[in-house]
Amino acid sequence: MIDIINTIAALLTIAFGAFGFLAPRYTLQVLDLGPTHSNMGLSEARASVGGLFVATGIAAILLANPWVYLTLGIAYAGAATGRVLSFFFDGPPIKKLAVYFAIEAGLAAWLILANLGTS
Predict the structure, then answer these.
(1) How far is C-alpha 58 from the chain's CA centre?
(2) pTM for the whole structure
(3) Segment 29-34 long-range contacts (CB within 8 Å, at least 24 positions apart)
(4) For 94-112, how does the pLDDT look when each residue is reduced to its tens digit (9 = 90+)?
(5) Cα distance between residue 97 and residue 29, in whole Å
(6) Which of 67, 75, 64, 60 is nearest to 107 (CA)?
(7) What are the sequence ranges of the domains in the chain?
């Protein structure tokens, strides 16, 4: 059962990344971001919001190792922590922040707790 849910979490990671990788303009719009005087924002979306997530999700599935899934969970925990800091310092739209936080924190909790201490 753990393997199935780990794989689903990795597939979700790939799906999230696919938006940034293949549709950076859409992704930037959803995230309330946008290109400025250059298209570097599109490049950043493809790289950090896209390719990084796609590659990490694919690696987790191909390596199929609890430590890799644990690391993926730690990455999601870092993202969720960034959402908490943003709540206190940036005043983002609360509903959007809450949805993204719930997804990131939920994936982090599962991936860390299910894979911690496994070998």
Answers:
(1) 13
(2) 0.90
(3) 32/93, 32/96
(4) 999 999 999 999 999 999 9
(5) 15
(6) 75
(7) 2-115
